């Protein structure tokens, strides 16, 4: 537990609201009744939910730049920084494994990938990368990685199929998962957080590091906003046109997906920074700041609380099924009933987040 350092209010708020959105998307009142945009796109395309994970990884990149640039300036030994980065990555990965095995802890069906696992790996790689490269080198690493991933996925035939294909479970990334990924996979024969797609997800965080480095320059706040919005629009537009040949796809974390979502995240950061840090409109940010102060802790607690609020049976149904069915029976639209329960669940998670924040306890996983 550590004392929270001084940060951009906009970044803390954006981190918190992103985690809240992630929990809403992960825990609807009913899987059967969910608004389209609150579902992950089945394959090609983009919904609101598809934007959440890359936005969080982008924020991780911004945070790396803001935190470690100061440490480097202060002369902190790199060896000590490496140690902290590695330990933090291992802790996040370990917590991800704990959530994957909960509640049965059956090692025979364990899954070695997931949201926290990807955050841990990306944080490890990008943290070390930030300490040893310039922003220009990071930019080139990002570009080369995206181009190489595009060429690999569109030119190398899938070995067990014999030709290039980008369909679910029948692409090069899925084949590599079946060949080398241990344990259970989320989709049986492939995993959306698998081996090959982790490389472009690292680039998502690199784009955040580039944005974070720019936020540290001596440009005026207005210039920062202008450049973030312009770069975000250009990046998203480039991703859109790249998507005409390499479709925007979260499951594959395609190169076009990286650019479209990173562009969106940059524009979102620019807009929130302008409203909150430049104009001083902090009203309404408190909820996001409270969630953001212990973002990963809140994410973990949501999975634990879900055992009671979603899995434990009260008679023949779980609590969420009782509530959603009850709301539908009095005339509430099914999708709205499901969303209302998800918002209620967010409120439950807000209680420990608020208590931790009030007591100035910041758990740094």
From TrEMBL:
Tagged with keyword Membrane: yes
Alphabetized InterPro entries for the sequence: HGSNAT_cat
Superkingdom classification of source: Bacteria
Annotated keywords: Membrane, Transmembrane, Transmembrane helix
Pfam families: HGSNAT_cat (PF07786)
Stretches assigned to coiled coil: none
Segments passing through the bilayer: 51-69, 115-132, 139-156, 194-215, 227-246, 252-276, 288-310, 339-357
Domain Heparan-alpha-glucosaminide N-acetyltransferase catalytic intervals: 7-218
Protein name, per record: DUF1624 domain-containing protein
Record lineage: Bacteria, Pseudomonadati, Bacteroidota, Cytophagia, Cytophagales
């Amino acid at each position: 537990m550590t004392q929270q350092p001084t940060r951009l209010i906009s970044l803390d708020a954006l981190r918190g609201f992103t985690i809240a959105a992630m929990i809403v998307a992960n825990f609807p009142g009913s899987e059967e009744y969910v608004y389209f945009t609150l579902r992950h796109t089945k394959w090609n395309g983009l919904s609101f939910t598809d934007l959440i994970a890359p936005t969080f990884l982008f924020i991780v990149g911004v945070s790396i730049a803001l935190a470690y640039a100061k440490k480097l300036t202060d002369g902190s030994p790199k060896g000590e920084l490496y140690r902290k980065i590695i330990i933090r990555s291992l802790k996040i990965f370990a917590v991800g494994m704990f959530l994957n095995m909960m509640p049965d802890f059956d090692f025979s069906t364990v899954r070695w990938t997931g949201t926290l696992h990807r955050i841990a790996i990306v944080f490890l790689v990008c943290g070390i990368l930030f300490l040893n490269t310039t922003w220009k080198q990071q930019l080139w690493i990002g570009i080369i990685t995206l181009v190489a991933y595009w060429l690999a996925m569109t030119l190398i035939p899938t070995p067990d199929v014999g030709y290039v294909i980008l369909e679910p479970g029948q692409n090069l990334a899925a084949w590599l998962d079946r060949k080398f990924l241990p344990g259970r996979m989320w989709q049986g024969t492939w995993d959306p957080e698998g081996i090959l797609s982790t490389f472009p997800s690292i680039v998502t965080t690199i784009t955040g590091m580039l944005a974070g480095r720019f936020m540290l320059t001596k440009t005026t706040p207005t210039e920062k906003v202008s450049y973030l919005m312009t770069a975000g629009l250009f990046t998203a537009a480039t991703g859109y046109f790249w998507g005409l040949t390499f479709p925007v796809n979260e499951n594959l974390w395609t190169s076009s997906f990286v650019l479209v979502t990173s562009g969106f995240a940059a524009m979102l950061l620019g807009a929130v920074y302008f409203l909150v840090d430049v104009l001083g409109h902090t009203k309404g940010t408190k909820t996001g700041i409270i969630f953001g102060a212990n973002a990963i802790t809140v994410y973990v607690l949501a999975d634990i609380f879900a055992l009671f609020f979603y899995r434990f049976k009260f008679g023949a149904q779980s609590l969420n099924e009782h509530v959603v069915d009850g709301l539908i029976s009095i005339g509430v639209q099914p999708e709205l009933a499901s969303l209302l329960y998800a918002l209620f669940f967010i409120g439950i998670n807000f209680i420990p987040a608020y208590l931790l924040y009030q007591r100035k306890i910041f758990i740094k996983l």
